[in-house]
Design brief:
By secondary structure, this protein is α/β, with parallel strands linked by helices. Helix content is about 25%, strand content about 25%. It binds zinc ion (2 copies).
């Protein structure tokens, strides 16, 4: 099978011919139909996030059809359309036992620690496969795994109450406006702290969801927050940022890191897409061989919403 592998950090992925991965009795083999391209893939490629041993196949937003089924996974059917939850939990640690499988202390992630979906096939634990209704396309499903799921999980873990003001740090201003944001500020041209103070009557927002998580956005977010406010860090950058402990103490500020999504919430999200309450934005698709172009386009800010690779 063809796969685009990370062979060396900071280098383009390499097109390789690999044997189809053999499965264990608890696994299934998925013929990948779409795989989302995530910002984390850029960090993995650059080596700013180091996970699995090289070489390995990138791609953690996988959707496809079941091609082989392990003996212990007979509830699956060949040809079944599925989304892969890339959080392969151990099932035995304390977090797994209390239902927090995406926070498993022994977590292995498809496309990060083991081979992922920039390939014609990927194997995954059968229990990580979520059936897809016909109304949800492979492209739409794939990007729920990380992009959609992470934000959905963060919103559910930090519910917004009536009367609260929310700030979302993101780079796509025009899109945010189109999707109904009340106010859009451009940090490169405007004094965000001052403008948000004015917009919130001097009080600041109750929650900031930081999807960028660069030191500048994180430090600005902390300055912005209302008393007892909460900063939710979602972007997976690795640069440290400065925190003044006295500010946290005096303003009772909370900082909450969020990533991933448990399978039961991915199931909810699939239903929300099926009923068109949530619409994934897929702006571009690439053949497998063009995975490097997809990564470059994402790096260059030329992708609106998500791009997908279609092996
Ligand atoms: Zn575990
Ligand atoms: Zn991701």
């Amino acid at each position: 099978m063809k796969a685009m592998q990370l062979v060396k950090y900071d280098q383009p992925l390499k097109l390789v011919d690999l044997p189809i991965p053999p499965i264990t009795r608890h696994d299934a083999l998925v013929r990948i139909k779409a795989c989302g391209v995530c910002h984390t893939d850029l960090h993995l490629q650059e080596g700013s996030i180091v996970r699995g041993r090289l070489p390995f196949t990138l791609g953690h937003e996988m959707a496809g059809e079941v091609a082989e089924i392990g003996e212990e996974a007979d509830w699956l059917k060949k040809g079944m359309r599925v989304l892969v939850n890339y959080h392969y939990a151990c099932g035995a640690c304390h977090n797994c036992r209390v239902g927090l499988e995406d926070e498993c202390t022994e977590l292995t992630s498809g496309g990060m620690d083991v081979d992922g979906g920039y390939a014609e096939y990927a194997k995954a634990p059968a229990r990580n496969l979520l059936p897809l209704p016909d109304e949800v396309s492979y492209e739409e499903a794939s990007v729920l795994a990380c992009g959609g799921g992470t934000v959905y999980h963060a919103m559910k873990a930090n519910p917004i109450s009536l009367g609260e003001t929310i700030v979302i740090s993101d780079e796509k201003l025009t899109l945010a406006q189109k999707l109904g944001a009340d106010h859009v500020l451009n940090a490169s041209k405007q004094d965000v702290v001052k403008e948000v103070r004015v917009l919130t009557g001097g009080e600041g927002p109750h929650k900031v969801f930081d999807l960028v998580s660069a030191p500048t956005t994180l430090e600005t977010s902390l300055q912005l927050l209302h008393k007892r406010g909460r900063l939710i860090v979602i972007g997976a950058l690795t640069k440290p940022f400065q925190v003044n402990p006295l500010h946290l103490v005096r303003s009772r500020i909370q900082i909450h890191g969020q990533g991933g999504c448990p399978s039961y919430e991915l199931e909810e999200l699939i239903q929300l897409v099926k009923h068109r309450r949530v619409q994934p934005l897929i702006s571009k698709s690439y053949p497998l061989e063009d995975a490097n172009q997809a990564l470059e386009d994402l790096r260059g800010g030329r992708i609106l919403g998500r791009a997908v690779i279609k092996p």
